[in-house]
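quick q for whoever's on today - can somebody do inverse folding on this one?? i tried earlier but teh output was garbage lol. tokens:
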């Protein structure tokens, strides 16, 4: 198949990543779950059954290239717009051009919108009538979760394909192909890159083919001889950071993985996700706040020391910063992972909130009200209040501490783990005293 002009680099001086853009499906590395023989997208391409679609995946996974290849294999016109730079006016111009091409040449048009999640609702709606009537085939690329970034009307008309980060072996093939290409490769030079150095560059690229080729180009530009040195590769690899998108899906997926590892009593996994987030540039104070949440939500009174340790780690991070604060966070995460687990307080709090919202502003029972003035005392405020310290066993058996109109709920149910075993026994004893006093069981 001849190389389509849309797949040619802008100039011989274009970056290596642009010059090495795949020109056929066979040159694509990764995405075998979509492009392997027999897979739905591969079958649609080969059968020329174009449909509107959204490519969702991290940078450097081939979203733009795949859209260009779709145009090549279908014989359609390819028009690319960036949602960062264009608006509704540009979309209208693309539609007018698509009509002309349809009428004059009988070909369809693929309108590719990069960073489509940056369009507002009105801009996204501008595609809909033209997609419906078949004037153009819409392909959007996004690094954000389409469920949140795109409106339902657009999602209902386009199929979402998830592109995955490239594996290390895929990235090594990308690097090797660039080194072996005498025309599109590193300025026409034949260079040697050892297997270990190739692996280091691939690992440093972190699933991003563009990043892998950018690193290779930097290595080539800094090499005078025929072999790219191991020290140079190690230096380039050390300067890379892992993929971390603050406020995006990667961010929330990783904090979710950390939280679930702690909840699942998996200290090693929890340390891994903590390291991933710190290494990726996450604010340690955000992690500290979430660790405090874990201590209350998933451990609670099964081990109250967990909350104190989490707060101490937060304090160390604020006072000392890196690396001492990160080590304190690691200590807290390990302790929380190994501690006895209970979400009894978390569930109790949610149930109490639900009742507070459902029953409205019920009045405080008269005996529980404060009575600082004579009028309040004359109205009976606090008159029948039973001072617990003066009661047998320090407990006012049978007393009710809820509003009169509220059923007697029991929110807190300690589990049989950690300190909550003792708390459970204590509450059971108090309920026995309530029954003996003839009061409502579990009244307070």
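ok took a stab at it. sequence:
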């Amino acid at each position: 198949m001849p190389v389509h002009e849309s797949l040619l680099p802008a100039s011989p001086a274009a970056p290596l990543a642009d010059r090495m853009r795949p020109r056929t499906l066979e040159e694509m590395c990764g995405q075998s779950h979509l492009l392997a023989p027999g897979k739905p997208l591969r079958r649609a391409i080969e059968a020329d059954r174009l449909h509107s679609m959204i490519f969702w995946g991290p940078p450097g996974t081939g979203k733009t290239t795949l859209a260009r290849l779709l145009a090549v294999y279908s014989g359609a016109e390819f028009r690319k717009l960036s949602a960062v730079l264009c608006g509704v006016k540009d979309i209208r111009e693309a539609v007018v051009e698509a009509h002309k091409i349809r009428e004059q040449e009988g070909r369809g048009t693929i309108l590719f919108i990069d960073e489509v999640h940056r369009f507002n609702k009105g801009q996204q709606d501008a595609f809909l009538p033209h997609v419906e009537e078949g004037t153009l085939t819409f392909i959007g690329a996004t690094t954000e979760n389409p469920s949140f970034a795109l409106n339902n009307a657009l999602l209902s008309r386009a199929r979402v394909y998830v592109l995955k980060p490239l594996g290390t072996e895929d990235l090594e093939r990308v690097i090797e192909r660039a080194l072996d290409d005498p025309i599109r490769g590193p300025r026409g030079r034949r260079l040697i890159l050892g297997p270990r150095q190739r692996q280091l560059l691939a690992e440093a690229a972190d699933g991003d083919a563009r990043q892998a080729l950018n690193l290779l180009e930097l290595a080539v530009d800094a090499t005078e001889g025929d072999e790219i040195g191991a020290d140079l590769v190690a230096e380039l690899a050390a300067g890379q950071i892992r993929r971390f998108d603050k406020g995006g899906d990667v961010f929330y997926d990783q904090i979710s993985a950390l939280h679930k590892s702690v909840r699942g009593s998996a200290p090693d996994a929890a340390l891994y996700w903590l390291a991933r987030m710190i290494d990726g540039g996450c604010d340690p104070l955000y992690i500290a706040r979430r660790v405090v949440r874990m201590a209350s939500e998933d451990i609670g009174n099964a081990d109250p020391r967990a909350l104190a340790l989490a707060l101490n780690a937060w304090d160390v991070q604020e006072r000392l910063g890196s690396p001492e604060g990160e080590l304190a966070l690691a200590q807290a995460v390990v302790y929380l992972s190994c501690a006895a687990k209970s979400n009894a307080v978390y569930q109790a709090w949610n149930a109490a909130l639900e009742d507070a919202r459902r029953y409205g502003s019920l009045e405080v029972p008269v005996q529980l009200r404060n009575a600082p003035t004579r009028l309040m005392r004359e109205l009976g405020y606090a008159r029948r209040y039973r001072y617990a310290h003066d009661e047998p066993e320090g407990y006012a058996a049978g007393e009710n501490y809820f509003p009169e109109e509220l059923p007697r709920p029991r929110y807190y149910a300690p589990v049989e783990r950690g300190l909550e075993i003792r708390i459970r026994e204590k509450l059971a004893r108090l309920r026995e005293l309530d029954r003996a006093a003839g009061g409502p069981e579990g009244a307070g």
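fwiw The domain at 249-338 is CATH 1.20.272.10 (Zinc Finger, Delta Prime; domain 3). also The chain has four domains: 31-162, 168-238, 249-338, 362-437. so keep that in mind when u check it
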